[in-house]
Amino acid sequence: MKAFLQTFMRDESGASAAEYALILAIVGIGIAAAALGLAVSIQNAMDDAADTIDAKGEGSEPLPSN
C-alpha cells in the first residue's frame, strides 16, 4: 500500500489535465466576454441606423401610391 501511495504522489498526469482544463476555462471566458462585447456593439450600430432612418423619414413627403 505504501508503494502505491508513493507512486500515486509522484504521478503528474492528472496535473496536466487540470492545467488544460484551466486553460480551457480561461479561453472560454475570453470568448464569452468578446461575444457579449460584440453583441453590445451590434445593438448600438442597429439603434444608430434605426435612429438615422427615423430622422430622415420625418418631414418628408409620403411616396405616391400607384
From TrEMBL:
Name of the featured protein: Flp family type IVb pilin
Entry keywords, A to Z: Membrane, Transmembrane, Transmembrane helix
Superkingdom of source: Bacteria
Transmembrane stretches, start-end: 20-40
